[in-house]
């Protein structure tokens, strides 16, 4: 599952033979922000060279579900990309805008 939030972009998967989830990110500070603001129990952030997502950490389903609930409760913006620009800068908002534009092609 991909999660695009105003504190970061994350990919969440369950690795084979693992009973917890792995939260992956391309930017370490995204995972650091997630841990600081929403998931203090997030495991150590590991750096992997040559992997699709450079950074990853483990978390229980329950803790991630609670974090997602809190993220939803904290929504206070009328425009997501503007909120991203305010919290993470224009460059990140521009990248998210490109994703938004690409996904527009799904709309019929």
Q: What's the order of the H and E elements?
A: EEEHEEHHH
The shape is: globular
**Radius of gyration, taken over Cα atoms and rounded to an integer in Å:** 14 Å
Helix share bin: 40-55%
Uncertain runs: none
Q: Specify the biggest β-sheet.
A: 5 strands, antiparallel
Q: What is the topology, as strand order, of the major beta sheet?
A: 1-2-3-5-4
Q: Mean of the pLDDT scores? A: 96
Residue share in β-strands: 15-25%
Counted beta strands: 5
Please give a structural write-up.
With 108 residues, this protein is α+β, with helices and mostly antiparallel strands. It contains four helices and five strands. 44% of the residues lie in helices and 20% in strands. A five-stranded antiparallel β-sheet has the order 1-2-3-5-4. Helix 3 packs antiparallel against helix 4 (90-104). The radius of gyration is 14 Å and the shape is globular. 21% of the residues are buried.
């Amino acid at each position: 599952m991909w999660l695009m939030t105003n504190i970061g972009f994350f990919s969440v998967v369950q690795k084979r033979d693992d009973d917890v989830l792995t939260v992956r990110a391309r930017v370490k500070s995204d995972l650091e922000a997630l841990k600081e603001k929403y998931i203090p129990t997030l495991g150590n952030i590991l750096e992997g060279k040559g992997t699709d997502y450079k950074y990853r950490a483990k978390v229980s389903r329950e803790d991630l579900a609670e974090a997602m609930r809190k993220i939803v409760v904290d929504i206070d913006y009328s425009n997501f990309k503007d909120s991203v620009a305010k919290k993470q800068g224009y460059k990140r908002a521009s990248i998210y805008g490109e994703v938004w534009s690409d996904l527009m092609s799904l709309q019929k």
